[in-house]
Design brief:
Elements (H helix, E strand, L loop, with lengths): L3 E3 L3 E3 L10 E2 L6 E5 L2 E6 L2 E6 L5 E3 L10 E7 L3 E10 L2 E6 L12 E6 L4 E6 L3 E6 L5 E3 L6 H4 L1 E6 L3 E6 L14 E8 L2 E8 L4 E5 L15 H5 L5 E3 L9 E3 L12 E2 L15 E2 L5 H27 L1
Parallel strand pairs: 7-8
Antiparallel strand pairs: 1-2, 3-4, 4-5, 5-6, 6-7, 8-9, 9-10, 10-11, 11-12, 12-13, 13-14, 14-15, 15-16, 17-18, 18-19, 20-21, 22-23
Length: about 325
């Protein structure tokens, strides 16, 4: 075929081939050649990249598209697809990653997909198994698509409004590990103020709440420890969900002597008439117990002094 040079249409007339490209540099088997509605980039006499008639870019392969919607295909080991970028079909755009053993429709090792219809992005591994999803609200799902995995044990939900929700079956739901030194493993804040921490050492765990004197005012001694202590009603009971275990404790609504030890309101229900259960932090009873014990010790010491005086007389 003759080479045509035209001041209007440019240079035309030679298609070339992979081994003898139409446009080359000093290396005669490296350059660009043309086919029907196709442009190929070649090195060392082999085609390395192709832009075909549909606008697809094929890198490392010239294989046709059996799925009809690839926009970018990157191959390795001859024509084995390693990466595919597919245009949206049914509202979903995809990037696929495969390995040298993958073959056939849907045979891929991992993919990233955006579902335009439902407005979420998901990540798959092992040939189509969804492992993670990010929805339109910024919620991240790991191992689940449930909005409440803490209720069904299905995985992890990181929610901008609900926080971190974790539900795992038959193993620990989380591990916090501090290495190489003793100290804080987990810190708690209200707004930007520290209010507590969980500290670890090589042999123990400490649960700390704010207690520095510089945070407090109107400090007075507890003078009615025994009186208040006598209103407490320690009991033995079991929880309805664990009928075989009997424990010591309190009924939250009865702990009126230390109201800050309890949370919630007796017989409270939510908008669906479901119970909102009360809770108790029994550690907050320690100051009252200590004050009552000190009062009792003082009384005992007075009695011991009187008894000693009577015995001496």
């Amino acid at each position: 075929m003759a080479l045509n040079i035209n001041g209007t249409t440019g240079i035309s007339g030679v298609d070339g081939s992979a081994s003898a490209p139409a446009v080359t540099g000093t290396d005669s088997n490296t350059g660009i050649n043309f086919a029907s509605d196709t442009v190929n980039i070649n090195t060392g006499g082999s085609t390395r990249a192709t832009v075909d008639s549909t606008g697809r870019l094929l890198v490392g392969t010239t294989t046709g598209d059996p799925y009809g919607n690839r926009q970018l295909t990157v191959a390795s080991s001859g024509t084995t697809t390693a990466l595919e970028l597919r245009s949206p079909t049914n509202g979903t755009g995809r990037i696929y990653f495969t390995d040298s053993t993958a073959s056939g429709t849907g045979a891929y090792m991992a993919s990233v997909q955006y579902d335009h219809t439902n407005n979420f992005m998901k990540f798959e591994t092992n040939g189509g198994n969804e492992r993670m999803r990010i929805d339109s609200s910024g919620v991240v799902f790991v191992g689940t698509t449930s909005s409440s995995p803490h209720t069904d044990g299905s995985g992890i939900n990181i929610n901008p409004t609900a926080g971190l929700l974790v539900g795992i079956s038959n193993t620990h739901a989380g591990i916090f590990a501090r290495h190489s030194s003793d100290g804080e493993c987990l810190r708690f804040q209200r707004d930007n103020t520290d209010v507590g921490s969980i500290d670890v050492s090589s042999s123990s765990t400490s649960y700390n709440t704010s207690s520095d004197y510089r945070l407090k005012e109107n400090v007075v001694s507890i003078s009615d420890g025994i009186t208040r202590l006598k209103t407490l009603k320690p009991s033995r009971f079991n929880f309805k969900v664990d009928t075989d275990t009997t424990v010591d404790g309190f009924l939250a609504h009865e702990v009126t002597a230390v109201p800050e030890a309890t949370t919630g309101t007796k017989d409270e229900v939510d908008s669906d008439n479901k119970p909102v259960y009360q809770g108790i932090d029994q550690s907050k009873l320690v100051p009252l117990l200590t004050a009552a014990l000190q009062e009792a010790i003082a009384k005992i010491e007075v009695l011991e002094t009187k008894v000693a005086a009577l015995e001496a007389g």
